[in-house]
Specification:
Elements lengths: L2 H22 L5 H4 L1 H12 L4 H8 L3 H10 L4 H36 L7 H20 L15 H20 L7
Helix pairs in contact: 1-3, 1-6, 3-6, 6-7
Length: 180
């Protein structure tokens, strides 16, 4: 089974489980009314497509995307892993295509058949950069760095100082005999 087929199967299974739980609870849900739309959102998310891209390119409503991703939060890691594999393959294929294009252009330049412009490789380079970003996003790599500060109370500080002073006393009190 291909990675894409495996991802689709995982999404279908998750939709069926969520739909069943929503039906039992008699909750109105997109999973019940339009499971194919939910599948598309989950698939795009799994391969690293941003919410903004889903809104612009696929005309999904932001609230719909958010509600869907929240409903399927328990399943997202499995989707992300499979989506990451798909995105990585896509990236490697684009990288290979770029190398082929560069080689072909090089040959044509060398023989004098072609006069290159910067625009010749621009589109494939943009596609490659987007694919790399999607692959990183799909695999859960950090797309932005956030600072995480630990909060230390005065009591924590005083306790640490007290323990450090006790340890220093123990170390100074020990006698080490070098000549044995």
């Amino acid at each position: 089974m291909s990675v894409e087929a495996e991802l689709q199967a995982e999404i279908k299974q998750a939709i069926s489980q969520v739909t069943e739980s929503k039906e039992l609870a008699k909750i109105k849900s997109l999973s019940r009314s339009k499971p194919e739309k939910v599948a598309k959102i989950l698939y795009l998310h799994a391969i690293g497509v941003s919410q903004t891209a889903m809104i612009r390119k696929y005309c999904f409503d932001r609230g719909t995307i958010i509600n869907t991703l929240v409903d399927y939060a328990d399943y997202k890691n499995a989707f992300r892993e499979l989506g990451g594999q798909l995105s990585a393959r896509s990236y490697v294929n684009l990288e290979s295509l770029e190398e082929d294009l560069i080689e072909t252009v090089r040959e044509k330049i060398h023989t004098g058949e072609y006069e290159p412009t910067p625009r010749d490789i621009k589109e494939i380079s943009i596609a490659k950069a987007n694919s790399a970003r999607q692959a990183l996003t799909a695999r859960g790599e950090a797309s932005s760095i956030t600072e995480n500060r630990n909060v230390v109370t005065q009591e924590d500080y005083e306790e640490t100082i007290k323990k450090a002073k006790e340890r220093i006393k123990l170390i100074k009190g020990e006698v080490i005999d070098v000549e044995e």
